[in-house]
Each structure stands twice: as structure tokens, then as C-alpha cells.
Write a structure and sequence with these properties.
Length: 135
Amino acid sequence: MSPGSRPLELAVDPKSAVPVYEQIKRAIKMDILSGHLSDGDALMSIRELATKLQVNPNTILKSYYQLEVDGFVVSRPGAGYYVRVDRKKFHQERRHSFVRETAEYLSRITEIGYSVQEAISELERQLEIARSKGG
């Protein structure tokens, strides 16, 4: 592992309708948005991550490139890829991710017959459980 890099706790599902490079990109982006990866942290080398996930190195390269285009990582020639946190973009993306996940959740629960109020009540209950556990 590269100096300063953190092991990513991610797995890919080759049977998923979501392309593998997109699964990797999303997982790394979520690690950044959740604070598990911070500004300046080194990402695992392309070769290391490809070996770990048993995917083609070009798949990792595509994920890293997309993250770079999106402004979440920066490539340093000869040194690897590093997290780059643009605070404005970070907060925009974090908000966008929250809104998207909330909309998907509400869509799923209403499809199976629960009301929005029931969903809110359950979320409040789960929040209390998490708080009581120190989360």
C-alpha cells in the first residue's frame, strides 16, 4: 500500500446492473462524503486496488478518472491519486446525495404501502436507537 493511503472497505458486485467502475466510484465518493477519506489522503494504487477487487486495472483507472473529473481526487504524476475536497462542491454533493437517497427511500416504502408519515416515524425511532447506542 502507498504511504498515507487507507485501505478501502469496498466490494463490487459483478452481477449488478451498475457497472463495476461506477460501483467503485460511488463507494470512494461515499467514503469522501462521510469523512472516512479526508483531503490529501492517498487512494490505493490502481494496481493494488485492481488486485484487491480482482478487476482489470483499466476499470480502476476509469473510476479514478471520473472522480478526478468530478473534482473529488487529483492525480499527481508518479505519486498516485489523492483526495481533493473542494468545500463548496463537497457540501453540494453531500446534499445531492442525501436528497437522492431520501427520495429513493420514500419511493420504495410508498411502493410497498407505507405512508410518508409512517416512514418519518420509523426514521425518528431509528434515530433514537442510534443516539442511545452513542451513534
